[in-house]
Amino acid sequence: MARLVSNTQMLIKTCIQQDFGESTYPTENAFFEFFAASQVLKNYNLSGEEVENGIVGDGNDGGCDGLYVFLNGELLTADQIDNLSAPKGSVLNLTVIQAKETNSFSEEAIMKWKTISENLLDMRKVVDSFSSRYNEAVRDGFTLFRDALTKLIRSQIKTCVHYYYVSLAAEVHPNVRHQAEELKEIVKTLYPSSSVEVYFVGADELMNLYSRDADTQINLTLVDNPISLGSNVEYVALVDLPSYYHFITDDAGSLRRNLFESNVRDYQGQNIVNSGIADTLKNSRGEDFWWLNNGVTILAEKITQITTKELSLINPQIVNGLQTSTEIYNYFSENSANLESEKRNVLVRVVVPESEEVRDNIIFATNNQTTIPKSSLRVTDTIHLQIEMYLKSRGLFYDRRKNYYKNQKKKTSDIVGVSFLAQCLISIILHKPDFARARPSTLLTDDTTYANLYDERYNLKAYYNAARIGKLVRHNLAVSQNMTQAEKSDILFYLLYAVVAKALGKKDISFDDLSNFDESLINDDIINEVKEPIYEKYKELGGNGRVAKSSSFVGEIDALLGF
Length: 563
Prior knowledge:
The chain has 22 helices and 14 strands.
């Protein structure tokens, strides 16, 4: 007798089909891998591009559809390894995802994980010796985890390996759970002090994740009536430390990292300032905490005063106070018993900005009172607000505020990431698609590169054209059936450069050229005409990431174009 399909299974299937219909994915199975990863990783607040970049589910994937490495909750990329550092006690997490749009969980998926974990998590084995068995993207994901662990070994970091099996199942068979326990034992043998977990995400869990409200509403409990000028757009108040700890953590006790997306600083680890904050928390000498700390600034889209001692905040963002918040989180995570007796307070300012310009000014000012790299503040520059407004007027959404438009339910295909636009500009204007491919996380840190690409004197249409053509090329590759995901990523920015260069008939392309360019002339026929010879040359040279990251490959492309 066939097993009945539950209401939840039918509903989540309908949601997936509807979302797939609005996507650029060639098949529903391919889209489900992205969909599953997006839901599982929701707490990490990744952009659509970041999720897509971790999808590795091609042939020879060893049961891995998604691979992601996080350090203290922040996504790691290979170009960060050389300069990677972390404070003692940091957490390195490898997340492996398998996504099957079926109504059951199978033993086979876990068995594949057992094999690939024995092969690629064993530091005694050379990852590239498995090149005939596992695809390049999978090997790169495990290599990134191993390289990060090796780089940070003296920091006494904590390691976690988490496996997520996502399907539309209603239950997990005991045999599958037994396989999962055996998988955990294998990994624990290789990394005895690690936290190893296997999670089964079925239809009910998937629906709960999918249904989570895009708007975040969090209540903030105050010590007393806040100071206000009579409006509901600005409040200054004291918040006791336990209440603030509960404000910045979720139901599982994890830090709500999405609260800090607008904070341009990263957590700086155990530097002199943070060590001082930690010492103040651990060693109370009779002073209240807020006497010794500058406090926290929170921006929100709406503030409602529920009672004299409670505020309701819609989509709050902690724009100044990341270091303080993280140290408070660390302190109570390690000393949870103190939550009951703690009486000290932190000073909190809550503001609803009247405009985007005011919002950016607050972010810049509150983060520019002490030394901070200028690169971290760049998305608050006027040029980025201008780009956002210009693109929005033409149907594209510049993700200057990470995931803002995703949370507004805009189509992923219409959202342009900050890094993606920078990669497009570097490929077209600077003639460096190799740089764009190899350094996705560090593109805006170089002052010279930034100055060459972002200037208020440039015609904004150039940014629109770069983004629009980049999206067209990316979509063309997405629906290509004869390439792996890794190959598509490798040639994306070379193809983008080549399409524009061929249309203009030259390799040295200026902002004026790009702003005057008629992007409507670019279509799939033109892209395909350029794509085939580029792909053939790429495969001829080796067809791997080393080719794509080589500075010589762009010369090969120029030769194909006759330059």
